[in-house]
Amino acid sequence: MKTRLTNKDGEVRELTDQDVKQMRPMSEVLPANLQRAIGQRGRQQAPTKVKTSIRLSPEVIEHFKAQGEGWQRRIDQALKAYIQEHSHSR
Description:
By secondary structure, the chain is mainly α. It is built from 5 helices and no strands. The chain is elongated, with a radius of gyration of 23 Å. It starts with 16 loop residues before the first helix and ends with a helix. The model has no long low-confidence stretch (mean pLDDT 86). It comes from Vreelandella aquamarina. This is BrnA antitoxin of type II toxin-antitoxin system.
């Protein structure tokens, strides 16, 4: 007999090693159109940003993260403001 993954309230219980062993690949259990939709981001509306890697001091990261969601966007805005303020001096 299979043990349900949810309780009577619909809450998912903690998975056991046995639960994980019984899992099957998505390709075996979902229709192809649903497989394509899962895990795929929609097309970017305005691909104006470039993915990069940058090292910042812990203080900078802590400051921006402390303000909550959107910390990377705020760093981008701060750098744009810096460029604007300093581009006149050439």
